[in-house]
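Is this the right way to post structure tokens for a design question? Let me know if I should format differently. Anyway, here goes:
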């Protein structure tokens, strides 16, 4: 499953403050807090299909670092992120791109980074996944690799199957950030997820937010000149930080 919204959005201007590091043989963009932080914790940020080439993703890493979390965005796309010209380009074949980035080649870099961080003394992991990276965040929780999971407008998921499996196997509190206009997971589908995980059915913790006027990708690529999209982007980030403060 893939969607036209996966390549839609806006590219931001800005000056990323983090550094590129090799962790476990994988190139990573790393945001390190300037003040005191818990060195035994790491937040793994799994980007959308534009990977580390999109400034938006790097700036998002920086924002989490400013909140006190060492944040690592691995190049799990193996240097083959969607090119800049793919954004808002109806002729770019998202489906073909996805077929070249299936879990058999894109999950191993994530595992390598986590194992390397463990060797460095990290004992607790949170993950925040966006769009294409959202499914990987869910899988990490299903495999009980991470302790806290945040997922924003995921692609490559099936309702109810993916979330039935999550309910049965995961143990990490889940925050799900969604848009009211998401064509990948409609509000109806989102409510199906609520029926599986909500009302205390998923004991570790579950919360879904649905932002008005926001479509797929808003937490990363929103048009910040549109008030509702700006509110969704900022609100989802603030909720993510609160989720980390509560559970991580």
């Amino acid at each position: 499953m893939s969607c036209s919204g996966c390549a839609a959005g806006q590219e931001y201007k800005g000056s990323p403050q983090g550094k590129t590091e090799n962790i476990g043989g994988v190139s990573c963009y790393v945001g390190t807090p300037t003040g005191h932080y818990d060195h035994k914790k790491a937040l793994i940020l799994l980007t959308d299909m534009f990977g580390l080439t999109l400034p938006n993703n790097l700036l998002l890493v920086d924002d989490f670092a400013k909140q006190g979390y060492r944040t690592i965005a691995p190049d799990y796309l193996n240097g083959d992120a969607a090119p800049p010209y793919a954004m808002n380009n109806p002729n770019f074949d998202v489906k073909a791109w996805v077929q070249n980035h299936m879990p058999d080649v894109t999950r191993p870099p994530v595992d390598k980074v986590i194992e390397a961080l463990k060797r460095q003394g990290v004992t607790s992991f949170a993950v925040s996944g966006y769009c294409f990276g959202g499914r990987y965040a869910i899988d990490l929780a299903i495999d009980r690799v991470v302790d806290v999971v945040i997922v924003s407008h995921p692609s490559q998921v099936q309702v109810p199957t993916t979330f039935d499996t999550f309910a049965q196997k995961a143990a990490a509190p889940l925050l799900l950030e969604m848009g009211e206009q998401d064509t990948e997971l409609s509000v109806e589908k989102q409510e199906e997820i609520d029926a599986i995980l909500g009302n205390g059915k998923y004991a570790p913790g579950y919360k879904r937010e649905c932002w008005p006027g926001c479509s797929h990708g808003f937490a990363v690529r929103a048009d910040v000149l549109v008030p509702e999209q700006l509110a969704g982007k900022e609100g989802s980030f603030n909720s993510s930080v609160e989720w980390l403060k509560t559970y991580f």
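Format looks fine. Someone answered above. Worth noting: The CA atoms of residues 32 and 70 lie 5 Å apart. The longest strand covers residues 124-130.
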